[in-house]
Amino acid sequence: MAYQLTRHEFNRLIRAYRPSQYETFGAQDSRFTVPMNHALKCRDRLHVALRSGLQRLSDGPQTIVDFGPFPGSLLRLSRGLQPTKSARLFGAGLMASPEFVQFMKQDADVEILTVNLDPAGQQFASKGYRDTVPLPDHSVELVFALEIVEHLTSPFHLLSEAYRILKPGGHLVITTPNVTRIGNIFKLLIGRTPNDRLAPPGYNDPNDEWRPHAREYAMHELAEMLRHVGFEVAQSRFFLGEDTQDCQQTARQSVIDWVKVPFYLIPHLRGSLLILGRKP
I need a labelling partner for 29 at 20 to 30 A (CA). Which of 82, 141, 193, 221 fits? Predict the structure, then answer.
């Protein structure tokens, strides 16, 4: 029987969760109404992504990979769930300092692999990072890629690597902001851009491996990309509203959020996307 991660079980896990130094925003962060960490901020997305992926695992030993694992929340939460307590857990991506790699190994028995999943971008070519995940073909049951494809110059390398390492019948779970969300449309109507700056004015830090959004996607685009690589689309859904409800807001922003609500009746105007690809 497929494992169903209920909201009650996930909330219990979040309440007991002890965030690491890599996940904590700090008590002095004025953006939030409560002390915040990455797992708590992203709880809605993490719950739906974990539930969607874990319910498709078959019985037996499991190998699970998180593409873009920093700051470690998905993998640390996974280690506390019944289907993945004994699974082999890997993270593959950048921002993998020696301290973070050591912490994840000691804390959750997770192996972090430094991989540049966006070689088309050329930003890190001089660093000599590998651009293929050092795992054998057909060796993994489940891959997560949460909030990462929007940071890539081209997601096709990531999708191809996921397809390569997945076993037949394995799944890739993707979440990403929805480019057609009503908030973006509002911005365009008042003459504002919905895009991030590729770099703030005057910013130049070649050692910083975080990048802003290069491109956001509509659901049909993600589905087309998955099918192009060879996946079948096993599930797709739109998230309601914003990723977190614990942000400080001005009265103006609160009014804007209430104005958005009726538009959520139209799925493609909602906030974020989740799509599952299945390897035949």
Answer: 193
| Architecture of domain 38-198+210-278 in this structure | 3-Layer(aba) Sandwich (3.40)
C-alpha span between 276 and 25 (Å, rounded): 30
pLDDT (tens digit per residue) in 159-175: 999 999 999 999 999 99
118 within 8 A of 159, measured Cβ to Cβ: no
How many angstroms separate the CA atoms of 46 and 85, rounded? Answer: 17
Provide the Cα torsion 60, 63, 66, 72; round to 10°. Answer: 80
Range of lowest pLDDT (2-6, 14-18, 85-89, 144-148): 2-6
Whose CA is closest to 222, among 186, 268, 170, 168? 268
pTM higher than 0.85, yes or no? yes
195 phi, psi to nearest 5 deg: -95, 150
